[in-house]
Design goal:
Elements lengths: L1 H12 L1 E5 L4 E5 L6 E3 L5 E5 L3 E3 L20 E6 L8 H14 L5 E4 L13 H9 L3 H5 L1 E4 L16 H6 L1 E5 L9 H8 L4 E4 L15 E4 L2 H13 L1 H4 L7 H4 L1 H18 L13 H4 L23 H12 L13 E3 L4 H17 L8 H14 L2
Parallel strand pairs: 1-3, 1-12, 2-4, 3-5, 6-7, 6-9, 7-8, 9-10, 10-11
Helix pairs in contact: 1-12, 2-3, 2-7, 13-14
Length: 380
């Protein structure tokens, strides 16, 4: 039917690459996909003959993230959105414990947030705890910044300013247990800032966490002890990040990425005329800088497709688009960051639409549902 036809037309013009951001136990073949961005620490089992690019957006840290040898203003730094999976309320509880034991312990928390915390995805407990459970003296030890996220970016702080923040803290921490990268840890590592994360932490950055740069905790009390230990003896925890440059810097990773693209083109017997646009890959690959037209997005600030209908319209948009806004090459790459469940749903629709419905039902997801339901009722 129509969606399958459009996907075939899309493949005539583009090579389609699926980007796996968050950790996946297993990846299998996906219809219409030619290659996968699948870092070994993001994908445990890669069970498909489709091409693989063993890279992640966290490996494209701009070269100005470096050790600046600045005086330390804070003991702890955390940069994380206010979503529940970041476990900011647990972090705040641990900071309170550290201040209770060491009253000069200091922290800087940068928590970008939407104007209104609607829905159940936000860590409202964090804000309630800060307002109701901390004394004014304890709040005085914490520099809390909650800049509003805009439609243009989920990170409202200028990226060029971030190296100064990382360099001004004795350590960086995240309390989330499952991340895509994340880039903030990669950026902190490139600045020579030690990391503290939960022992259960999973994410692509695990490939670059070692005994010299990262410390993992099993309980909040253990995390508190680490906080105080690094505060009191931070010189003992310092490390030289130069050995990570080859693995995480944008300039070197972009070159490796282009070499991999050339290999894939050759294997697919397609002429490659390069080169890719190398600027801002740390944001573009992770859809943190939207390249999808806003009308198709689920969230205005992110490059995520909002529905099956949006996926269909986006595909149609690219079929008739002269140049790709991600890469400008003969067979342009398009990074379709569709959630896996949407692709599975597309397969489901194709199977049933081809079998039961002899006309276009792709106007809205609701229309799809009712037409399928009505058509199936005719057979009962």
């Amino acid at each position: 039917m129509l969606l399958k036809k459009q996907m075939r037309r899309l493949k005539d013009k583009y090579i389609i690459v699926y980007f796996w951001a968050r950790f996946q136990e297993e990846v299998k073949s996906i219809p219409f996909v030619d290659a996968h961005f699948a870092h070994p620490c993001s994908v445990k089992k890669f069970n498909t003959e489709q091409h693989r690019i063993k890279m992640h957006d966290m490996q494209f840290v701009p070269d100005y993230f470096e050790n600046l040898n600045l005086p330390k203003r804070w003991d702890l730094l955390c940069i994380a959105t206010a979503s529940k999976n970041k476990n900011l309320h647990k972090l705040l509880k641990t900071i309170k414990m550290a201040i209770d034991e060491q009253n000069d312990f200091t922290a800087c928390l940068i928590v970008p947030r939407p104007e209104k915390l609607k829905g159940g995805n936000w860590d409202k407990k964090f804000f309630e705890m800060y307002e109701n459970e901390l004394t004014e003296d304890q709040k005085g030890n914490i520099d809390l910044y909650t800049p509003l996220r805009s439609e243009a970016s989920i990170q409202p702080i200028p990226k060029e300013f971030l190296p100064y923040l990382y360099n001004s803290a004795k350590f960086f921490t995240l309390f989330s247990e499952n991340e895509g990268g994340p880039k903030v840890i990669a950026e902190a590592l490139m600045c020579g800032t030690p990391i503290i994360v939960p022992s259960s932490f999973t994410g692509g950055i695990n490939a670059y966490l070692d005994e010299s740069n990262t410390y993992k905790f099993f309980s909040l009390n253990e995390a508190k002890n680490m906080f105080i230990s690094i505060k009191m003896n931070h010189k003992e925890y310092e490390f030289n990040p130069d050995y990570l440059t080859d693995k995480l810097s944008a300039s070197q990773s972009a070159e490796r990425l282009e070499n991999r693209f050339e290999e894939i083109f050759k294997q697919m017997d397609i002429r490659y005329k390069g080169s890719i646009k190398k600027d801002g890959l740390d944001s573009k690959l992770s859809h943190h800088k939207p390249t999808i037209p806003e009308i198709y997005r689920r969230n205005p600030a992110r490059g995520e497709l909002g529905s099956v209908t949006a996926a269909y319209k986006y595909i149609k948009y690219y079929i008739f688009k002269d140049t790709c806004n991600v890469y400008t090459i003969t067979y342009e790459f398009i990074l379709l960051d569709l959630p896996y469940r949407i692709l599975r749903f597309i397969e489901y629709i194709i199977r049933f639409v081809d079998k039961f419905v002899p006309f276009d039902v792709y106007k809205t997801s609701k229309l799809i549902y009712f037409k399928l339901k009505n058509q199936q009722n005719k057979f009962h």
